[in-house]
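[#protein-structures] MJ: dropping beta-lactamase here for a structure pass
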Amino acid sequence: MKKLLFIALLNIIICPFAGFAQVLKEDQKLKAKLEELIKDFKGDVGIYVRNIKTNKVVAINADTIFPTASMIKIPIMIGTFDKIKQGRLKYEQELIYRDSLKYDDGIVGSLKDSAKITLSKVVMLMCTVSDNTGSLWLQALSGGGKRINAILDSLGFQVTRVNSRTPGREANRTQYGWGQTSPREMANLLTMIREGKIISPAYSDRMYRNLGRQFWDEEGLSQIPENIKVATKNGAVNRSRSETVLVHAPSGEYVYSVITKNQKDESWDRNNEGYELLRKVSALLWHYFEPKSKWKPVEGYEKL
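AK: finished. structure tokens for beta-lactamase:
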């Protein structure tokens, strides 16, 4: 009896993050399917999945540190909204763009010097099209990476951090780039926003709505029916691909985060092994949680 109890306890995880006091159980069947899916991947893979309705989870390298790439824009948005709560920024305030802010040729970086744009539109561009110049602008307006990291720490996140343009984190930036995280932390961060636990329910709601407008929908989102609500942020750098998604599935919401690093495939076309992995994981999860669904992805996008 004691041996059986010990084995049962090994399959129970108590989530350590603020706002997560639930007891989580491992979904061994789903874990086996995911492990089979990633076994031949040429690089490192981390996956965290949680069925929010049943509290069953899968954790594969879920606490390993990975590059965030553009997923760091979720913490930047949180830092921005925290400044709004303090009254030091206003969501609809008018900003003036300067050429000195330019990082790349995205939408914000293509503005003319002295162009006017509201802060809310810069946030939208950061979340929707992953605008880099706008994101770095908001990082500065929110008080910088050090302040954002302090907020993350206060929420119980131990490894999710802004590295770039953050004093004292130069070594982390060299290793991980703009930001770093783990699949478990990134999935939990998105879930806390969904549950109204970041800053306030109203602020969380506004942030969650921003994450529901995703321009980059060719990977994991392409494997989910177009009429299903999702909130998401993805990222990509040469040797890493990532995606964190909360799916409002008919049978119950689920959240997952997939992140790679040290990929052998550094190509930037649709057939990149990391992009293919994001699609395969998303498809597997959709049909696992919605076994009666007969929906299939529309083919032919690659010919557009």
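MJ: nice. The longest strand covers residues 44-51.
AK: one more thing. The mean pLDDT is 94.
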